Amino acid sequence: MARQGMAMALLVVLLAAGCWATADAAAQLSKLPVNLQVTASPTSGQVLHGGEDVITVTWSLNATAGTDAEYKKVKVSLCYAPVSQKEREWRKTHDDLKKDKTCQFKVTEQAYASTGNVTYRVALDIPTATYYVRAYALDASGTQVAYGQTATGYTFNVVSITGVTTSIKVAAGVFSAFSIASLAFFFFIEKRKKNN
Fold it and tell me: How far is it, in rounded angstroms, from Cα 52 to Cα 42?
């Protein structure tokens, strides 16, 4: 009886350890199948402005991909291109997707369909950089099980908002003109007083 209890306890410990290791193990990009075809509307090299321009991203299941029964959601992100990762550790690509910092800006996460698209206005807080688009197929637990990204060499640029709007420029111009006029007026008054 004691031997049976020990065997049962050992089995529970081994199962728990196996589950913990599986839960702790992150998906690796190099091991994911490239089962999604992804395109984006900007032309390669196009410059987009935060808060103004719109991107349409389209994805579909590759014809050779096989079954997509385990795909429950699709997550689309903007990813830093290699040129925008140089000497920036906080943007670096890592094969372990829990450590990967390439795709930090979510475009959408929605229920999976074998074909789909999303229209996304470039957010105001997207940093100035060069980007491409990647889509992940997620299983029921939210783990990446497949992916796709825009073609190699395809990138576009985003220029973030500077915070200087047209109204601020107009106000600065008006105040500058007022200060110059005030200076000229007081200079004229002082000169007149001296002459008297």
Answer: 13
Give the pLDDT band of residue 167 (cuts 50, 70, 90). Answer: confident
Within 13 A of 16's CA, how many CA atoms are on the CB side?
Answer: 6
What 8-state DSSP symbol labels residue 34? B
**What sign does the dihedral 65-71-76-80 (CA atoms) show?**
negative
The residue among 137 and 176 whose pLDDT is bigger is: 137
Strand partners, 144: 138
Beta strand residue intervals within 2-104, DSSP E:
36-40, 47-49, 54-61, 73-80
Q: pTM for this structure?
A: 0.70
Q: Tokens for 22?
A: 């599986």
pLDDT of 17: 46
Write out the DSSP string of 118-179.
EEEEPPTTPPSEEEEEEEEEE-TTS-EEEEEESPTT--EEEE---S--HHHHHHHHHHHHHH
Domain ranges of the chain: 28-159
Geometric angle at alpha carbon 72, from 70 and 76, rounded to 5°: 120
CATH of 28-159 among 2.60.40.1930, 2.40.37.10, 2.30.130.10, 3.30.70.20: 2.60.40.1930
Q: Which of 45-59, 125-139, 171-185 has the lowest average pLDDT?
A: 171-185
Q: Could you tell me the sign of the dihedral formed by the alpha carbons of 41, 36, 137, 143, in that order?
A: negative
